[in-house]
Every structure is written in structure tokens, then in C-alpha cells.
Specification:
Strand content: 5-15%
InterPro entries: Cyt_P450 (IPR001128), Cyt_P450_B (IPR002397), Cyt_P450_CS (IPR017972), Cyt_P450_sf (IPR036396)
Shape: globular
Oligomer: single chain
Pfam family, one: p450
Protein name: Cytochrome P450
Keywords: Heme, Iron, Metal-binding, Monooxygenase, Oxidoreductase
Helix content: 40-55%
CATH topology: Cytochrome p450
CATH architecture: Orthogonal Bundle
Strand order of the largest sheet: 1-2-8-5-3
Number of domains: 1
Distance between the termini: 47 Å
Radius of gyration: 21 Å
Family: Belongs to the cytochrome P450 family.
């Protein structure tokens, strides 16, 4: 854990003891300043705390990752995995992301809506029959596995549990090293090696026996100069971790927000047309991805401060999305905030700019399908425990389990997505 020194910020939101509710500490940081000096992995960087400055860093071409140029002060093994473009800069980022972008357009993702609805209905059938639901293990995890591992990556169902275990270890390992235990770092390395080996075999198999999944489409380009086999493997690993964590925690955080606020839950039952706006409010209020990193690619200025090429910042997107300078009553959960003719300012839950979340349409689809069906098919949702166990990761925010007491209405007509 980073220790404060003269001129260095002691940042409470990164303390595990405050993991249940880091938001008061984000507020304290915003009050202290927009740009705060901080030591991360013993490297001097700055925390970016407020909306205006976060948005500037995320959207400016002056900022990127700098690994290819050897100027990044941050540790990131993922930057050395071919195809893991999340930590790349143009032109490689542009080339690899471009190979996927068409598959993640809203129209293409919309074609997956019937699959998502069918999976959710089946999961809720089981939950209502049992009289209770774990919104993580019984809803968001199996839905994400079906959509990401199944439809996108073509992973056989028998292999998905192992991949989820590896994925969780890798996701935990995306936190800075000084926020990890030695066991976390060992697990991260072992899980990454296991995943890369698994996907190398799967890509080879898909080149021989293609399916109708995205991985098969990417594998078909190997040998034509479009993409290399290691790059396809790296993309598969990226989709597994980013796609799973974002969807699982977005759904879990959304259900939890409704459990904690019966008034908003009742309003959403009365107004299912507000479900898309509610998903945006979850992304603002309790985002599944709390922060990201950037490096100055050239000398530049943010918030009146000059940054030199190679300087690093931690962009606190979750803090920015509760900035009192931008959002009215930012700590309240309001499913109407993004509805109507004058919605609130755009949140940073999916980032902004060049690295805006590629899988945002899929994560939205899964979250909307889950909330819409859950409310349509139940009369009551109540939190079945007061003791929530949050994931150890600080970048990825969510709970391990979310037990919900439900009373059902049987099979109901679920309003179509987007209505």
C-alpha cells in the first residue's frame, strides 16, 4: 500500500478497508484538487479527480499508453501480449480495434438480443422456482459466459468454469502491483499462461473447424496478412477479461442499487421504458471500472499544470462521474437522470475517446435484458443479506455474491429492449 510522504496524497479510496464505499474518499480527493501527486508502484504520478480534467485526458491525442515507445512508467504485462490493444496506441491500436469494431456496432449486437433474453428467462425460471436468486452466480455470470465465452469466443460449455477462474485471477492482477499480495501476482501469471495456452489451441482448432463465432472469423484472417495467430489469441484474452468483468459487475451493481432504493425500484417497475436510462445511471453511480491509466505522449497541459512526455496519470473515472461541479446531487441514484429531453452530462463509466469501451453495446444489452426481465417477472426484490463481500480488485468494482429474495409473477411478457 502506498505510504504518504511530503507532497504526496494519501488516497483513501485505494485502501481495502474502504472498499465497500470508496466514494467519500473520491469526494475528499476532488475537494483537495483536480490533480494530486501520488506514488503508484513507487512511481510518482498524478491522480486526476474531477470531470473536466478526466475528460480532457481521455479524449486528447496528447495522452495514450506509451509502451511501444518505452516511455510508460506503469507496469502492465498485458501491453506485451500481441492483440491486447487496450494498452496500445495508434497505429497498432487502430488496426486491431478496427478488425473488431463492426462486430460490436449496436446493430450487430442487437442481433444477439434474442439469445440474451432466452438465457435470462431460463435463469429466472430456476430462481423463481427456488424462491431466491444470487444475482451474480445465478444471473450475471452465466449470462456473460453465454454471451462472451459462448457467442463471441465459441468456448465449449464444459470449459467455461475454468476460464472464469482464470479470468478472475487476471482481472485481480490488473490492479497496480503495490495494491496486490504476492499470491495475487503469482495467480495472475499462472492464469494468464493457462488462458493463452487454452486460446492458442482453440484458435488452431477454429482455423481447421470454423464456427459462427467471432473468434472463428478472426482466425480466418490468419495467414492472409490480416492478423497473426498470437494477435487473435491476445484479442481472445482481452475479450474474455474485459467483456466478462464489465457485464458481470454492471448487472450486479445495478441490481444492488435497486435493492438499496425501493423507491427507484418501484419507479422502474412502473416505467420499464426507463431501463436504458437506469443502466446509464448505474454506470455513473457505481461503475464496474473505477479508473484507468494514461501517459503523456508529448509535453502537454491539463488543469493549468504542465506534464512532460512520459509522465503518468491515474484517471479516476468513478470520481469524475460524481463530480459536484457537473452532476446535481451526485451521490443519489436516480433512474430518470439520463431520461427526457435534457439528460445529465455524459458519464465516464465506459471511458471516452480512442479507448471508449468497445464492448459497451454488449454490456448494455446484457444489463438491460437482465433488469427488464427481473422486474417484469417479480413482485418483490429484497436484499437477502447485510454482509456483502466485494471483489478484491480496485479497478473492477463488484460483489462476489448478491443473494436476493424474490417473489414471482410467473412468466410475464417482457417489454422488448429499447421500449
Amino acid at each position: 500500500m502506498t505510504t504518504a510522504a511530503p507532497g504526496i496524497t494519501a488516497f483513501g479510496a485505494f485502501a481495502r478497508a474502504h472498499q465497500v464505499d470508496p466514494y467519500p474518499f473520491y469526494r475528499e480527493a476532488r475537494e483537495e484538487g483536480a490533480l494530486l501527486p501520488y506514488l503508484l508502484d513507487d512511481v510518482p504520478v498524478h491522480l486526476v479527480t474531477r470531470y473536466t480534467e478526466c475528460a480532457q485526458v481521455l479524449t486528447s491525442p496528447d495522452w495514450g499508453h506509451g509502451y511501444a515507445e518505452g516511455i510508460s512508467p506503469f507496469r502492465d504485462p498485458g501491453a506485451r501480449i500481441p492483440g491486447s490493444f487496450v494498452r496500445m496506441d495508434p497505429p497498432e491500436h487502430t488496426r486491431l480495434r478496427g478488425l473488431l469494431s463492426r462486430s460490436f456496432l449496436p446493430r450487430a449486437i442487437g442481433e444477439l438480443a434474442p439469445t440474451a433474453a432466452r438465457v435470462v428467462e431460463g435463469l429466472l425460471d430456476e430462481a423463481l422456482a427456488a424462491g431466491g436468486l444470487d444475482a451474480i452466480g445465478g444471473l450475471s455470470e452465466p449470462l456473460a459466459a453465454a454471451m462472451v465465452q459462448g457467442r463471441l469466443l465459441g468456448v465449449p460449455e464444459a470449459d467455461r468454469a475454468a476460464l472464469r477462474t482464470w479470468e478472475l485471477a487476471i482481472a485481480r492482477g490488473t490492479d497496480p502491483d503495490d495494491l496486490l499480495d504476492p499470491a495475487d501476482m503469482t495467480a495472475r501469471t499462472e492464469a494468464a499462461q493457462a488462458c493463452l495456452g487454452y486460446f492458442a489451441e482453440l484458435v488452431a482448432r477454429r482455423r481447421r473447424e470454423p464456427g459462427d463465432d467471432l473468434l472463428s472469423a478472426l482466425a480466418a484472417g490468419v495467414g492472409d496478412g490480416v492478423i497473426s495467430a498470437p494477435e487473435v489469441v491476445g484479442i481472445a484474452l482481452l475479450l474474455l477479461v474485459a467483456g466478462t468483468e464489465t457485464s458481470v459487475n454492471l448487472i450486479g451493481n445495478g441490481v444492488l442499487a435497486l435493492l438499496r432504493d425501493p423507491t427507484q425500484q418501484a419507479l422502474l417497475r412502473e416505467r420499464p421504458d426507463l431501463v436504458p436510462a437506469a443502466v446509464d445511471e448505474v454506470l455513473r453511480h457505481d461503475a464496474p471500472t473505477q479508473f484507468t491509466i494514461r501517459v503523456a505522449l508529448r509535453d502537454t497541459e491539463v488543469g493549468g499544470r504542465t506534464f512532460r512526455r512520459g509522465d503518468g496519470v491515474v484517471v479516476l473515472m468513478a470520481s469524475a462521474s460524481r463530480d459536484e461541479r457537473v452532476f446535481t446531487d451526485p451521490d443519489s441514484f436516480d433512474v430518470t437522470r439520463y431520461a427526457g429531453r435534457r439528460p445529465a452530462r455524459r458519464h465516464l463509466g465506459f471511458s471516452l475517446g480512442l479507448h471508449f469501451c468497445l464492448g459497451a453495446p454488449l454490456a448494455r444489452l446484457e444489463a438491460e435484458a437482465s433488469l427488464r426481465a427481473l422486474l417484469a417477472r417479480t413482485e418483490r426484490l429484497e436484499l437477502a443479506t447485510a454482509d456483502l463481500d466485494y471483489l478484491p480488485s480496485l479497478i473492477h468494482r463488484g460483489v462476489r455474491e448478491l443473494p436476493v429474495a424474490v417473489s414471482g409473477r410467473g412468466r410475464q411478457a417482457v417489454p422488448p429492449l429499447g421500449r
